[in-house]
User: Fold these one by one.
Assistant:
Number 1:
Amino acid sequence: MAEKFGKRHSDVLRDVDTILTNADLRSSNWFRETDYLDVKGESRRSFDLTRQGVTLLVMGRTGKERENCADFCFRDSGG
């Protein structure tokens, strides 16, 4: 997702963390914290997002960023 936004992974994590300062959103299942192994084999923090989580995250993006992310995130989901 960071790549589609043209942003650093850490910046997208910061944006998600900012969203999750809202107690109602923190208790939702829209963002599930997880991790992945990067190309160096190091564990990195990430989130699995539902469609609602992606929508909330991209609302703060500009036109082309939003379009790129929506295309990437929803191309195989029929919507």
Number 2:
Amino acid sequence: MSKPLFNAEESLKQSENIGSQPSKPLYNRMILVGAPDWVSGTIARLHSAGIAHVRDWSRLVPTQHPGEVMSLLQRLRCISD
């Protein structure tokens, strides 16, 4: 006899355990892509505005387009109740 596609009892057991399972951390990401001077300048302005420290950004990484770089900022998402 084949196994049914949907097993209500098994599904219910899984849904009861959802709250007890550790959740993966969630991240926000900001990516800047452009000319090196523009990317560096934007990072500096975001630092001056108190949004992100310069050290929190990745190094400037060349893209496939000549004269273009990218930098990534990744932070844990703040979840408020």
Number 3:
Amino acid sequence: MQPSPSAVQARSGRQSCPSRSPPQDAHPHRSARSRYQSDSILCACSGSIGSLIAWRIVQAFGASAGVVLSRAMVRDLYQGHHAVRMLSTLITVMAIAPLLGPIVGAQILALGGWRSVFGLLGGVGIATLAAVATLPETLTPDRRHHEPLSRAFLRYGELLTTPRLMAYTGAGAFFYGGMFAYVAGTPFAYISYYHVPPRYYGLLFGAGIIGIMATNMLNVRLAHRIGSDRMLRFGTFLAAVAGIPVALAAWTGCGGLWGLVVPLFIFASATGFIVANSIAGALNTSPARSGSVSAFVGAAQYGNGIVGSGLIGAFADGTPWPMGWVVALSGIGSLLCAAALSLHPFRNRSGET
């Protein structure tokens, strides 16, 4: 669902409006935050599952704006390794928040019921709306475009013809498929299959969050020395190498619980090397279209994540095996996409490699 709202933002916030207009990046941010907080409250007031699902879909449009525009605004302000550093910080929050969500949400659910979860989200929407009001313009007037909305949608088709962009996108999207499989599959694998007490599941899951934070901080320190593409290749290699023993342990039971926990920890920790570097690389392929690229990359990541988690449900057989092979294939796919970058070297505007 990310491309649709971001295309509108590309028209109203990142393309048109003369320089005398108010901040244009902030305007779609504010409208999206307003929509998000109001839709969260409507979710809390839903009287049936049908209306809840409907308002959740509408809520997603508002939520997508923050993901799309925050990445694009980083690209407006920073380039090269500086962009990687800022994106690593941004991705740390964006990667950890969904992982912490189930833990925090379970506590809120136990204390106040499901409506309180959406009430809290509405409060978060109001707080972020106040914060967004302080944001300055990041896209200078000379870099804005005056194109119709239909052209904004056509840009997504044009992005498919950029091999280097597709390589970066694929590296991140395949990895997201494995991470969503990890999030969806570990509760069953740990609690139901290996009989880990639910109160200890959070500790095992939280270890992955610590690993993500550590690799993001390491990426910030090393990306400008080693290069973001090399860090990306290393991260995808790490994910692929970790994914294979996950599949073997899930299939054979070798190593028991820890045969899954240890390689899954390594796989999840690769987030710090893959996500920020793949996004920064993708944005660098088309600096003038950072909004469209950000939406395209985000849609590919979350879309493939849905596929990854969906495959676990579709092939569920009462064992961790579906999670294992999805994680393994995702790691390998991410590595192959990162390796494809060498086939399409980056060229600057003068044509130099």
